[in-house]
Amino acid sequence: AAELRGAGQQQVTKCGRLEGLQSLARQAAEEDETAESARSAATALTGQIDAAEQAAAARREQRPRLSLRRDQAREAAERLPGVRAEADRHQRAAEDMTALAEARADAAQQSEAYIAAKVEHAELLGEAARLRMARIDGMRAELAAALVEGAPCPVCGSLDHPELCELQGDRVTREQEEEADAEVVAASERAETIGAKLGGADERVADLSARLEGAGFAVAADLPTIKAEAGRLKTAWLELQDEAARLAATRLADPQAALEDLDQQIAATEKRLIELTEQRESELRQAAEADQRAARHRESLLAQLDGAPDLDNALRAAREAADALIAAADAADRCARTEADARSEEDRALQAAAGAGFGDLDAVRDAQRDGEWRATADQAIRDHEARGKAVAELLADPDLDVALDPPADVAAAETAADAARKALDDALGANDRAQHQAEQLADLAPQLTARLEELRPLSARAGEARRLADLAAGQGANTLRMTLSSFVLAARLEEVAAAASERLLKMTSGRYSLAHTDARRGTGRSGLGLLACDAWTGADRDTSTLSGGETFLASLALALGLADVVTAEAGGTRIEALFVDEGFGSLDEDTLEEVMTVLDGLREGGRMVGIVSHVAELRQRIPAQVRVRKGHAGSHVEVRTPAG
Questions:
Q1: Most buried by CB count within 10 Å: which residue of 16, 198, 372, 421?
Q2: Alpha helix segments (H runs only) across 215-303
Q3: Bridge partner residues of 541 (DSSP)
Q4: How far is it, in rounded angstroms, from Cα 70 to Cα 81?
Q5: Under a CB-based contact definition with an 8 Å cutoff, are residues 618 and 640 in contact?
Q6: CA atoms within 13 A on the CB side of 461
């Protein structure tokens, strides 16, 4: 087994040596790729050379035509400005004529709508007057129904009631009258709105007509003729535009310069042909050199493969040989263990034979009988047992009872013998298993030691990572129990507290400022605490001890301080709007004045400050207001501006 394992290890070493030849194979493959790339580049350069030759030939053919185009271009250059000016004039006229048609149509529509609105307003006005008179008649009828002969009239005091009014039709209520009046007002407003639109449309028509007449175009009176004229002008404009485009395409800024430029292009193309030809020859040389280097690499590789056709086959053969030799070594080990097991079983068989009264295993084999003999012997034993039983029964006769020695305990002796044999078998099996496990442990112990050595630096790195993680999570050696996020936020909170203190000092007349603290509260974490510094008492206390008004001032100062810090870090980009919701009701008059002064200062430079509050005193301080009023039908919004 040791020789086989050593041979297998040699094949493994050979595999390692062959693996080292992979770089040589890769170099050969890279050289092949280099050669193929160079040949591809040469092919591409051949295509470029053909294209350059075709371009040079085409440019040489252009010279006669370019001379003819020079004369045509000069004529086009002389005509182009006039054509463009005429095209622009027709374009503007077409656009104005189209707009005039739309304005005329809009004016006609607005005129019809205005007449209809005026008619509607007149009808609604008449209906409102009718309802008002009907309501007055209803009130007269009610008064007349309450009059009693001889009693004074509640309106005029007269005792005489010559003509009593009677109600005709349904009674009109005050709500109906007010609804009719509202419809009249709405109809009047609609008529005024449509009238304003009609005036704008008429003004637009007059303006467009004046512009067209000033440009030399006649303006028709009817709408169909205006639309037809707009189409004609647009067609003329498109034709002039096409003519201008044709002249522009024909014109050359400098025909002589174009000829010189063509000659320069021809010379540059010929120079390019020379360069491309040289590059192609260079690429072909590189391809040939790469093929030679690849061939040398492959020759060197084949010389080291011990007759194998290629590196892959050599590696495969070496790996298969190594696997086969190692498997054979394992089989030899198993064979040795099997031989040891066979010897152990032979020893057990000898012990069993000796216990059965045989001298050796040959005696056991000689004592073996066939089935017929065993059947005859078994029958003889049963006959003997039957005779013994009969004799025992005969001897059991009380008349034959004589004193005998106590019988031997055969059953106990047999049980002890069986237990001893079982213990021996168990001991032999345990010994074999122990030997096998000892051999396995002898092989595994060095591997375990090596793995433990590899694990030791990893365990140290893991411990360091665990300590860093605990430190970032506020655990372990982190006595302040401050997380990494809290640590980062604490630095930002210090800036916010400093900016907020400037605001809070002004609001509280120099009494309070804010300071960041890392102190822990009870068993909790630390890092985001704030203290209120009282300049009057000289003591720093927790913000939870502030009164309601003081807490509102501190919260407002923090919000403003955060806005200042964000503005500073955003490159001066300001927060354009700030909304403050409630909290003003807990402030006294002087403090409210200080807060409003600070908020007024924030409005400098165009910043908007919105205040949500129910405090009545703020209505006198804030000119622009949005009031929300509740009612049975829902809430209504009322907007008040400084202008009323």
A1: 198
A2: 223-250, 255-303
A3: 532
A4: 18
A5: no
A6: 5
Give residue for tokens 């020079």: 70
Two structure tokens written together for 69: 């185009």
Q: Report the alpha-carbon distance of residue 107 to residue 93 in Å, rounded.
A: 20
Q: Which residues of the chain have pLDDT under 50?
A: 253
pTM above 0.70, yes or no: no
DSSP state of 586: G
| Cα 319 to Cα 6, 9, 312, distances in angstroms | 14, 11, 10
* Cα–Cα distance, 474 to 526 (Å, whole number): 9
What tokens appear for 604 in the block? 């400098």
Q: In what order do the strands lie in the sheet with 529-534?
A: 512-517, 529-534, 539-542
First to last CA, the chain: 110
Count other C-beta atoms under 10 Å from residue 415's C-beta. Answer: 11
Sequence-distant (6+) residues with CB within 8 A of 551 are 543
**Contact call for residues 297 and 31 (beta carbons, < 8 A):** yes
**Distance (Å, rounded) from C-alpha 198 to C-alpha 232?**
28
Taking the C-alpha atoms of residue 388 and residue 380, their distance in angstroms, rounded to an integer, is: 12
CA dist., res. 482 & res. 169, Å (int): 87
Burial 452-490 (b: 16+ CB within 10 A, else e): eeeeeeeeeeeeeeeeeeebeebeeebeebbbeebbeeb
Residue 377 pLDDT? 80
Q: Which amino acid is located at 337 in the chain?
A: R
- Provide the pLDDT for residue 251: 56
CA separation for the pair 349, 341 (Å, rounded)? 12
Alpha-carbon span 474 to 462, nearest angstrom: 18
Q: Identify the residue whose tokens are 């034709």.
A: 239
Label the pairing between strands 539-542 and 577-581: unpaired
Residue with tokens 């152990």: 344
Displacement of CA 489 from its chain's centroid (Å): 25
At 476 the pLDDT is 67
| CB-CB neighbours of 616 under 10 Å | 8
94 and 234 Cβ atoms separated by less than 8 Å: yes
Tell me how long the chain is: 644
Pinpoint the alpha helices (H) of 356-370.
361-367
How many other C-beta atoms can be found within 10 angstroms of the C-beta atom of residue 257?
Answer: 10
